[in-house]
């Protein structure tokens, strides 16, 4: 067995549970006294259960830095999404600097990558910049092979069934 080291973890796939898995890891790390920072690349200012909980947990911070979910928007809206993603990248670089948190979660960064809001080179640079003792978590659909190759752990969520397709709206406490 090798000594402990900071890991690169990827939660990807088309099924629900990527952010939920990252939040579970965040809670576990926080329970061990680790400082945790979650930067959300797509999610905007919507009030979620995880934001409410983190507000009461010293040492676990969530920053929703995205401009909201990206649909077939016009170029001005896409520019806002790119600008928000650039700010989130800057926050991620700062978090991976000296005396940052022990766990950094980049929620939906892989979706931002797939939507062209951030570049593969930028995401790979973040992975390379990770200090040796920091755990870095990347979530979102469509993790490219270059990211998978650099990860220590990859979990793919596969959708089998989802209540949305039966006409059930997003549920408080489950989806947000």
How would you describe the shape? globular
CATH topology: Rossmann fold
How many helices?
6
* Helix content bin: 25-40%
> How large a portion of the residues is in β-strands, by DSSP E?
15-25%
Biggest β-sheet: strands ordered side by side in the sheet: 3-2-4-5-1-6
- Write down the secondary-structure element order: EHEHEHEHHEHE
**Through-space gap between termini:** 39 Å
Largest sheet: 6 strands, parallel
Spans of at least 5 consecutive residues whose pLDDT stays below 50 are none
By CATH, the superfamily comes out as P-loop containing nucleotide triphosphate hydrolases
CATH level 1 class label: Alpha Beta
Radius of gyration: 16 Å
The overall number of domains is 1
CATH architecture: 3-Layer(aba) Sandwich
Q: Tell me the structural class.
A: alpha/beta
User: Mean pLDDT across all residues, rounded?
Assistant: 93
Number of strands: 6
Descriptive report:
The chain is of the alpha/beta class. It has one domain: 3-Layer(aba) Sandwich (Rossmann fold), CATH 3.40.50.300. Helices cover 36% and strands 16% of the residues. The protein has helices spanning 18-31, 49-54, 75-95, 109-114, 120-129, 145-150; strands at residues 8-12, 36-40, 60-64, 103-107, 135-139, 153-156. It has a 6-stranded parallel β-sheet with strand order 3-2-4-5-1-6, sandwiched between helices. It starts with 7 loop residues before the first strand and ends in a 20-residue tail after the last strand. The model has no long low-confidence stretch (mean pLDDT 93).
